Amino acid sequence: MQGIRMNRSDRVFHTFVYMIMTFVAVVTLYPFLNVLAISLNDSMDTVKGGITIYPREFTLNNYATIFSYPNLLTGFRNSVIRTVLGTVVGVIAASMVAYVLSRADFQARKFMSVMFAMTMYFSGGLIPTYMLIKNLDLINTFWVYIIPAILSVWNVFVVRSFIDALPFALQESAKLDGANDFVIYWKVILPLCQPVLATIALFIAVGHWNSWFDAYMYNRSNEVNTILQYELMKVLQSAESAATNYRDPNAQQSMASVSPESIKMAITMVVTVPILLVYPFLQKYFVSGMTLGAVKS
Predict the structure, then answer these.
(1) Rounded alpha-carbon distances, angstroms, from residue 75 to 72, 94, 127, 211, 252
(2) Would you state the pLDDT for residue 251?
(3) Is residue 10 part of a domain?
(4) Bridge partner residues of 58 (DSSP)
(5) Total structural domains within the chain
(6) How far apart are CA 215 and CA 213, in angstroms?
(7) Which domain holds residue 224?
(8) The CATH number of the domain where 284 resides is what?
(9) Which residues contact residue 149 at a Cβ distance below 8 angstroms, ignoring those fewer than 6 apart?
(10) Is the residue at 22 inside a domain?
(11) Percent of the chain with pLDDT over 70
(12) d(CA 268, CA 207)
């Protein structure tokens, strides 16, 4: 009888857990499905409201309006190149600096750590930053997206915490075998740091992909180096302007046929889907990369 009661209690417990997880899944997925439904729904019908998780009047006109905008493909290409190149350079730079700061025989490690940490709380401000970028001749160049964002102090500290949790005997053993610091970094540290490197790679990639303000500040007059987010911002501004001045004969006809709400949702899907496609491949590293370096033995 006791075994039967335990089985029944187990079934009740599992049923309760499934109900809770189903509720969490619905709460999590509903906003995304709602955005997708609105982006695929007829714009004039969307104004009426009442769209839930499926489009009431299916159409691809919202996406057609976005992709018909000039310079969008150029911006998409530049955003992909920027994200890939910026992520690779950022991961290598952060891991190199983190390895140096983790070395017990580096005499200035505490001083350098404090100096790096100060940059997280104090900055020169927008105008000095612009003057610096201008003096470096990075205005209206593609490298303005890469060089200023090479190193993130937060990523350095995350990687350093992970390296500090690794047995230092591995580095000592490699050094006894004749390996120099670069060989230790490349063949010992990097292979063991795959989880945390994947984690910061996701941080860096999302930051580059979602960035638009640097294009607005430094490449506004150079359409060759425009990026996707900046172009989508201009699409949204055009849609809102056309909705406000729809009686104006000079307003863009393509924008006047769609509502800003539909454009917003379509833009949200365009910028979100690429990250959603990449995240599953890094998910298994994400949790371990954030937790393994958090506690030292």
Answers:
(1) 5, 27, 26, 12, 21
(2) 43
(3) no
(4) 41
(5) 1
(6) 5
(7) 60-297
(8) 1.10.3720.10
(9) 86, 90, 207, 208
(10) no
(11) 87
(12) 15
